[in-house]
Amino acid sequence: MAYRLVEELALKRRLDTDSYRTLITASANNDAVFAHLRDKAAKTAITKFGYGIFIRGLIEISSYCSNDCLYCGLRRSNIEAERYRLSDEDIMECCATGYDIGFRTFVLQGGEDRALTDDRLIPIVSNIHGKWPEAAITLSLGERTDDSFRKLFHAGASRYLLRHEAADESLYNSLHPVQMSWSNRISCINRLIGIGYQTGMGMIVGLPGQSVDSLIKDLSLMEKIQPHMIGIGPFIPHRRTPLCNNRPGDIRLTLIMIAISRLMFPDALIPATTALATVSSTGRKEGILSGANVVMPNLSPVSTRHKYAIYDNKVSSAAEAAENINLLEQELNRIGYRINYSRGDYNTDINHEQI
Predict the structure, then answer these.
(1) Nearest to 203 by CA among 267, 262, 254, 277
(2) SS3 category, 327
(3) How many Å apart are CA 325 and CA 297, to the nearest integer?
(4) Which of 51, 166, 252, 262 is the most buried (most CB within 10 A)?
């Protein structure tokens, strides 16, 4: 039955709740089903994108955060976190370095830093867009106002990453401070799409309290919203958070969710995340062989990379480092893929349901 469900999902792009439960459980416990699911997902990605893997240059612009999420090492209660903010000059230098290497997407990521006001960010985005107009600018800076989203969009940002983290509202509430509401997170995602951003959402696999039914809710939510980008990574505990003693998320289950997401959303841009590469030396490769088609090497200054510690032991060297793009190319070549140096935009000719 599980094999039939893989084929059905590939054709219909959706299953009912019981079928998702059967497929996830069978893939977790049966190596042959797991392999079939991943093979189908990888072939779907190849059909849509070929063997090219898009690259995004990640620039971590601030490790300050006003939130206190239980799973994140940047949480404001972590008094041992090393805080920094990149200067405008630092950010432009990172972009210049990345552009020379061949990157045509820059991802500005940071905690929800109250110092990252529109007055600070709009000139940065505008300057990047003005200097490299053919490059895409992606922002991953948390929840902001409608007005802020619009201003940044008009300044030149065209993509925004805002993972929903957990579609199960009770699970979400158990992991976030009371001032962070699940409904506002979903509203932000919907508003971003409405403004015109290529919008990313996604979840953490293996969070304490998460069940298979929780993951099915994630799939159902994404099915309704139809995101352009989907970020899925395993939970990795940080030693200075309340969840420090919990086990990391299961890489196999993470790969299952990537593969199912690829079959549900064949056009989506799905990264093989740094978290995957952190929990396993082969994580990035396994993500690609499960249907992922994006990698995000780190363009941040070498001196700050270790400070952006959202979880313990985050990798930012070797093939994870932008300056070692040749190592990434070699790694991809070994599994039959190559780097695609184009912007890698999403085909936005698709309807999105507001919820």
Answers:
(1) 254
(2) helix
(3) 8
(4) 262
pLDDT digits (tens, 9 = 90+) for 148-187: 999 999 999 999 999 999 999 999 999 999 999 999 999 9
**Alpha carbon 13 to its chain's center:** 21
What's the one-letter identity of residue 125?
A: V
pLDDT at 283: 93
350's enclosing H/E stretch is none
What span, in angstroms and rounded, lies between the C-alpha atoms of 63 and 56? 20
Cα separation of 229 and 268, whole Å? 5
User: Residue type at 70?
Assistant: L
The domain made up of 12-340 has a fold known as TIM Barrel (3.20.20)
What is the torsion angle, in degrees rounded to the nearest 10, for the CA atoms of residue 2, residue 169, residue 114 and residue 136?
30
- The pLDDT of residue 38 is 98
Structural domain boundaries in the chain: 12-340
pLDDT band at 317 (very low <50, low <70, confident <90, very high): low
Here the tokens at position 176 are 């976030």
d(CA 334, CA 144): 41
Residue holding tokens 């990313």?
Answer: 200
> Which alpha helices (DSSP H) does 143-181 contain, by range?
146-155, 169-175
Average pLDDT, stretch 191-199?
A: 98
In this predicted structure, what is the pLDDT of residue 312? 87
Q: Smallest Cα–Cα separation from 271: which of 260, 253, 284?
A: 284
Q: Which residue has the tokens 């593969």?
A: 259
Answer for the pair 60, 277: CB distance below 8 angstroms, yes or no: no
Q: How far apart are CA 119 and CA 111, in angstroms?
A: 17
pLDDT (0 to 100) of residue 318: 73
**Residue-wise pLDDT tens digits, 50-64:** 999 999 999 999 999
pTM here?
0.95
Paired tokens of 130? 């003005």
Neighbours of 117 (CB within 10 A): 11
